[in-house]
Design goal:
Layout lengths: L9 E3 L7 H4 E3 L2 H18 L3 H21 L3 E5 L1 H4 L9 E5 L9 H14 L21
Antiparallel strand pairs: 1-2, 3-4
Length: 141
């Protein structure tokens, strides 16, 4: 088996498994190599690269700093950003933790107000736009 040959030299075409003999065909090395090259091109287009990763981290750090100016807390990224599985137009998920129990009812409004003010700031480090407050499900305390 060559370096660029699929296991057994065959690929299924997605039809029924009991029809294996009639739905499998041998791919020659040249076609297999071409498929691998095309796949690598596609992955290179959508995977995070150093500039996009730096930019996304800079935006996350900027928003983290803004939130921490509102009240004492720790802010972390989660989801696709730290896992580096985001798509080019993907969002940045942040979560915050605070020991201040008195802010339970007001922190989200304070963050929204701060972001809306930053939206009007012409000298902001990044352009803030389309601020939305989405009330997520609240867990019982």
């Amino acid at each position: 088996m060559g370096e660029h040959e699929p296991p057994s030299g065959r690929l299924p075409n997605g039809l029924l498994p009991n029809e294996e003999a009639s739905v499998m065909r041998v791919l020659d090395s040249e076609r297999w190599l071409k498929a691998e090259e095309r796949t690598a091109e596609l992955i290179a287009c959508i995977q995070p690269n150093r500039p996009s990763e730096n930019r996304r981290n800079a935006v996350a750090n900027y928003v983290q700093r803004l939130i921490m100016k509102c009240f004492p807390c720790k802010v972390f990224t989660f989801g696709s950003v730290p896992l580096k599985t985001y798509l080019p137009d993907g969002d940045i998920d942040l979560t915050s933790f605070s020991k201040n129990q008195t802010m339970k009812e007001s922190w989200a409004h304070q963050v929204r107000d701060m972001l809306e003010n930053e939206e009007k700031n012409e000298n902001a480090e990044f352009r803030v736009k389309e601020v939305q407050y989405i009330q997520a499900e609240v867990c019982p305390s």
